Amino acid sequence: MATEKKASSISHIKTIGVIGAGQMGKGIAQVAAQAGYTAIVVEPYDEVIKKAKASIEKSLYRAVELGKVKKKDSDAALSRMHFKKELQSLEEVDYVVEAAVENEPVKMDIFSNIDKICAPHVILTTNTSSVRLGRLATATGRPEMVLGMHFMYPAQMMKLVEIIRTPATSEESYQTVRDLALKMGKTPVTVTDSPCFITSRLIQTFINEAIFCLHQGVSTREEIDTAMKLGMNHPMGPLELADFIGLDVVLAMQQSLYNGFQDPKYRPCPLLMSLVEVGHLGRKTGRGFFEYNKDGSRKG
Questions:
Q1: Using one digit for the tens of pLDDT, what is the confidence trace for 69-94?
Q2: Model confidence at 153, in pLDDT bands (50, 70, 90)?
Q3: SS3 state at 86
Q4: Which residues face 292 on adjacent strands?
């Protein structure tokens, strides 16, 4: 009779593999290194690695300036981060957080590969905000050790981590992920494998409804954002937030909600789809609901 593979406990985790050095991956790597772990970051593109290193150094330098981190601790964290180009570099890690592009086929392929590369006891987690965990678990031979570890942006500053478990997740694996989140200084909340989980589901519904308000002529883009900033004390209006996230990402998550629940209340606003179709994706393209300068600041 086959026995269930045993996952690593928190005490056995020394080295954490992070897949992707983009917006989320670099922050997760910094969090891991500051918590005392060696972080092996896999990123195939030189330019992304260069930007990630500069961003992490800037973040830690700023933390030292503000007195939040000691210089020696900042230097130690930097020394614990190592950037590699091949997934095979994760052969010796004790834990994995995948933070690659938000695309299900890409993530399925990554999980299939790291399942073969990593030792049988290694827990495989993903930072996905919308891909179903059950789907990723089926790409591996260790579904009981596949979970979501969804950090908020920017990961090095935000306290919340959503831990997503599937019906196949073992209690031992869940407890290890939760313990790790706590050791990283985060506050974990537990979520079932439901479309877009908690945070993305709520923020997507909020953003999509704001877009419908604009689409239906309820108010102007500036006034919709002002209403939420001054009336609800939000630091950023929903339309500016959508531009910040990227309208292609917003649409992909909204479609995930719509497809996952088959409920018309989650249908993406036609205006959102139109903007994505013509390549107006927000800050990263210089135009979305608003227009932006090259440095990301808003025009006007």
A1: 999 999 999 999 999 999 999 999 99
A2: very high
A3: coil
A4: 298
By DSSP bridging, strand 123-126 and strand 15-19 are unpaired
For 11-26, the pLDDT digits (tens) are 899 999 999 999 999 9
Bridge-partner residues for 40, per DSSP?
17, 82
Judge contact between 94 and 123, C-beta under 8 A.
no
Residues listed for the chain: 300
DSSP state of 197: T
As a whole number of angstroms, the distance between CA 236 and CA 225 comes to 7
Distance CA 31, CA 29 (A): 5
pLDDT band at 2 (very low <50, low <70, confident <90, very high): very low
Confidence of residue 230 (pLDDT cuts 50, 70, 90): very high
Predicted local confidence at residue 7, as pLDDT: 78
SS3 category, 188:
strand
| Single-letter code of the amino acid located at 11 | S
Cβ within 8 Å of residue 216, ≥6 positions away:
none
Q: pTM of the prediction?
A: 0.91
Continuous segment of H or E residues that includes residue 244:
helix 238-245
Map tokens 């981060």 to a residue. 81
Burial letters 78-104, b for 16+ CB under 10 A, else e: bebbebeeebebbeebbbbbbbbebee
| Cα gap 151→127, rounded to integer Å | 6
- Whole-number Å distance between alpha carbons of 13 and 23: 24
Within 13 Å, how many C-alpha atoms sit on residue 128's CB side?
Answer: 33
Q: Does 47 score more than 60 pLDDT?
A: yes
- The answer to whether 247 and 234 have CB atoms below 8 angstroms apart is no
**Distance, CA of 133 to chain centre:** 14
